[in-house]
């Protein structure tokens, strides 16, 4: 669910968690003439490990630590192509992700910025969504064990977007040499018996990062969860004539209207990337409006993924950003655009931000509703779930993306 929007949950038949076979949504797409923009059986392909030909390839990896003006401790992993800044005391979030050849941070930064360290978001009584938003500085958050609205589960109040996104994580350098920089972040949740272990890796000769994660249920009972990643992209990257590529079949708009500026009716279903607009004309969600004069807000779910990856190419800036993940762990994408379309707290019509977010579950209105919809995974007592993700930058001259692997290899149509 997009931060800053509180909706009541509606009773609706959401698709169950997909397996290797088609999900229940197949019936809604079988009559669609789906245009596969990502595959070409006759086209040869070319692969690149997130590299950029304009970059000196004999680059060394580095790890450094600093204290930001806000007082937050920052851990920085970098090589000559990429710089990644994480804030371990603030959910171990990725605060910045810079593509050095273009000197551009692709992650959005909120107008209200980082709050001074020590003014942390609470999650015990009160409005946990407002508390989360007050601290939301943009960037990329780990969402667990709840996503969207606050809810009560197993007698515990789970805060908006989950405890993992607001707690201080422990960290330790795992490797620091010229070929690889790796830092491990760990967190034991307070309100649930989960322990998260995440290793962030930057390697020489690549323009990307890898994330290796595991979550263990240390309780003696089985527990449901929502798990997701919330990478928010912003200008100037978004303003560069961006196109979104996703190997998917279905888009399901959220079942309640989130803003008068949305172009799509609540609950509308389309064949990705097209969905019928309120005016009866098709809306192509793969085309990202570049103009700051456009005002719109969208939120929905990209479903029936053929594979776990997406790519956003900016023709104006000459590079793209891609993300890959295991589809069995994150079978859905939450699709959120806040393009100066919402007024009042917290947006006030001034933010251009977009997030395409791998998630375990839908709808984005909290764990209780995901359980009701049958999309919340169950982690048995003592068991572990693992996920490997990769984020890459690529040269737009390589052409149209056709796949990105969780090892960070991007494949393009020739």
Please render the helix and strand layout as text.
Elements lengths: L25 H4 L15 E4 L13 E6 L5 E6 L3 E6 L5 E7 L4 E2 L22 H8 L4 E4 L7 E3 L2 E3 L11 E7 L3 E9 L5 E10 L4 E10 L5 E2 L3 E7 L7 E4 L2 E6 L15 E3 L2 E3 L5 E3 L11 E10 L3 E6 L4 E6 L7 E8 L12 E8 L7 H7 L4 E2 L4 E12 L5 E4 L5 E4 L1
Antiparallel strand pairs: 1-29, 2-3, 3-4, 4-5, 5-6, 7-15, 8-9, 10-11, 11-12, 12-13, 13-27, 14-26, 15-25, 16-22, 17-18, 17-21, 19-20, 21-24, 22-23, 23-27, 24-25, 28-29
Report the total helices: 3
Q: What is the CATH class designation?
A: Mainly Beta
Instruction: Say what the CATH topology is.
Output: Beta-galactosidase, Chain A, domain 5
Largest sheet: 8 strands, antiparallel
Mind telling me the C-alpha Rg?
Answer: 20 Å
Structure summary, number of beta strands? 29
Poorly predicted regions = 6-12, 16-45, 51-58, 121-125
Tally of domains = 1
Written description of the protein model:
The chain has 414 residues and is mainly beta. The protein has a single domain, classed as Distorted Sandwich (Beta-galactosidase, Chain A, domain 5), CATH 2.70.98. It is 5% helix and 40% strand. It has 3 helices and 29 strands. A hairpin with a 5-residue loop joins β11 and β12. The radius of gyration is 20 Å and the shape is globular. It starts with 25 loop residues before the first helix and ends with a strand. About 12% of the residues have low confidence.
Short description:
It is built from three helices and 29 strands. The longest helix is centred in the N-terminal third of the chain and has 8 residues, at 128-135. The two termini are 37 Å apart.
């Amino acid at each position: 669910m997009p931060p800053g929007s509180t909706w009541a949950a509606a009773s609706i038949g959401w698709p169950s968690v997909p397996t290797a076979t088609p999900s229940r949504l197949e019936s809604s797409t079988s009559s669609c003439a789906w245009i596969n923009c990502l595959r070409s059986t006759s086209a040869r392909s070319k692969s690149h490990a997130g590299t950029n030909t304009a970059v000196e390839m004999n680059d060394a990896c580095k790890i450094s630590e600093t204290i930001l003006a806000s007082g937050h401790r920052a851990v920085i992993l970098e090589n000559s192509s990429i710089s990644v800044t994480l804030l371990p005391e603030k959910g171990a979030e990725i605060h910045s992700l810079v593509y050095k050849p273009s000197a551009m941070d692709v992650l959005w930064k909120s107008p209200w910025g980082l709050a001074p360290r020590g003014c942390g978001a609470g999650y015990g009584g009160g409005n946990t969504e407002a508390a989360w938003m007050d601290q939301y500085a943009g960037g990329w958050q780990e969402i667990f064990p709840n996503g969207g609205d606050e809810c009560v589960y197993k007698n515990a109040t789970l805060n908006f977007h989950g405890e993992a996104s607001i707690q201080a994580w422990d960290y330790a350098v795992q490797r620091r040499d010229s070929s690889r920089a790796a830092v491990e972040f760990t967190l034991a949740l307070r309100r649930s018996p989960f322990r998260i272990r995440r290793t962030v890796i930057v390697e020489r000769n690549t323009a990307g990062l890898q994330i290796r994660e595991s979550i263990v249920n240390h309780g003696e009972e089985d527990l449901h969860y929502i798990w997701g990643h919330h990478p928010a992209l912003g200008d100037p990257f978004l303003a560069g004539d961006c196109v979104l590529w996703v190997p998917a079949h279905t888009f399901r708009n959220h079942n309640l209207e989130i803003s008068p500026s949305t172009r799509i009716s609540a609950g509308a279903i389309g064949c990705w990337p097209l969905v019928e607009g309120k005016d009866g004309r098709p809306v192509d969600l793969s085309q990202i409006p570049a103009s700051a004069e456009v005002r719109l807000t969208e939120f929905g779910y990209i479903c029936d993924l053929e594979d776990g990856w997406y790519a956003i190419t900016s023709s104006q800036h000459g590079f793209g950003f891609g993300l890959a993940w295991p589809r069995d762990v994150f079978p859905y994408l939450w699709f959120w655009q806040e393009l100066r379309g919402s007024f009042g707290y917290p947006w006030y019509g001034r933010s251009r931000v977009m997030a395409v977010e791998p998630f375990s579950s839908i709808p984005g209105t909290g764990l209780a509703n995901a359980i009701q919809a049958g999309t919340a995974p169950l982690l048995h007592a003592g068991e572990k779930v693992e996920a490997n993700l990769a984020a890459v930058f690529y040269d737009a001259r390589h052409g149209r993306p056709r796949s990105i692997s969780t090892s960070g290899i991007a494949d393009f149509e020739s």
